[in-house]
Amino acid sequence: MNESPITSRDNPVYKRLKKLADSSRARREARMTLLDGEHVLAAYLDAGGSPATLVRAVSLDAARLAPIAARCPQARIVTLPDPLFAALSPVATPGGVLAEAAWLSPPAIEAVPLIVVLEDIQDPGNLGAMLRTAAAAGATGAVLSPGCHDPWSPKALRGGQGAQFVLPLQTGVDLVTWLAGFAGDSLALALGENTRLYDRVLTHPLALLVGNEGAGLSPAARAAATATVSIPMAGQVESLNAAAALAVAVFEVARQRAGP
Question: Domain 4-102 in CATH: superfamily?
Fold first, then answer.
């Protein structure tokens, strides 16, 4: 396993990695990102990805990287001093492994459509968790409004734990236009509605709309949906957060589709 040490912030490879860590524009233009941690990297490899560069913090035992390096022998391997590595990692306590990798375009999922439609989800951890939950429940795709956080940011990828590699994504989408062309029902999740999610039949093609963590769905998105439904709660709390609401909804769909 041949490794190339990088010790300066002025190194062109390091500069490129730093742009991918910090800039959604750089990621979008290159269609590349940084994968943080062995688990996310393994999920990327399992999905058929091939990282361009593997990055190891010098404090991490090289043997830890060896099994991953063996799966992508074409990747360049570089080592970084811990301070330089920490400047790339999205977490306070880095795991010691990063990878420079191209975005994946997962194939269409052949199943009754279940699309999660997300409007202005701005927290990267929330967004990643929502994509992870959707994939776990059998969603066939996700549609993100222009106000959503970049799903390919290192923090969102860490929250998704591989969801972005298997769940087809559409980003920067005008939701009203998309909903008008969707051949199925679209249900907006919102508070204060008399119609309960649990009272709907959810076995047909379906889109589930979830809005911003604080503001919820915009009036335009709600109006474009087939119906607005609520998740019944006991009343001791005002609401569920966006990620929890989506989890309840997609697994109710999964429950109904699984049958008796």
Answer: Ribosomal protein L30/S12 (3.30.1330.30)
